[in-house]
Task: structure prediction
Amino acid sequence: MLGAVADAADEDAVRAAFDLAGRVDHVLLTAGGYTGAGPLTELTREAAHEAYDQRVWAAVVAARLAAERMPAGGSLTFTSGNLVVRPTAGIAGAMAPGGGIETLTRALAVELAPRRLRVNTVRYGAFDTPLLRSVGGLPTDEAVREAGAELPLGRFGTAEEAGAASVFLMANTYMTGQVVTVDGGQILA
Result:
């Protein structure tokens, strides 16, 4: 197993990572962020393009380069967030590309099916990670516990629980074109 890190929107960097790997059986792309977040009236073309590049273009690049070297039975797994289906004010610019990922997942699943390659997406809720702690303003364990207590399961998920969804999609050879929500019921609250 090899993990590689690259700027996912930089095609040359992604190609170098794939060249290092050689044969690729499964790809998990977790690229993206909150670029473009803020009021619509303040959203700039540059921020919108950056958000698109970080998510959608990065997925297109990864899919194209992986498909060149992936054997039948391989898979691509992308990520989106539950704010795609339950938005809040001020995230249109940041979350529109997440919706694009979910659409791209279905389109690529159809296109790559004749090669027996699978494409899926995990739609994540909030998990107790460094990103949640920094962006969510939850710097301490106590702050995370208090905020998580309001959720249906009474807590945020763990990084291990988040990762298990991606492993499931890679391992289940009959899953393709699916968006699997893993959020502990957060979209229900």
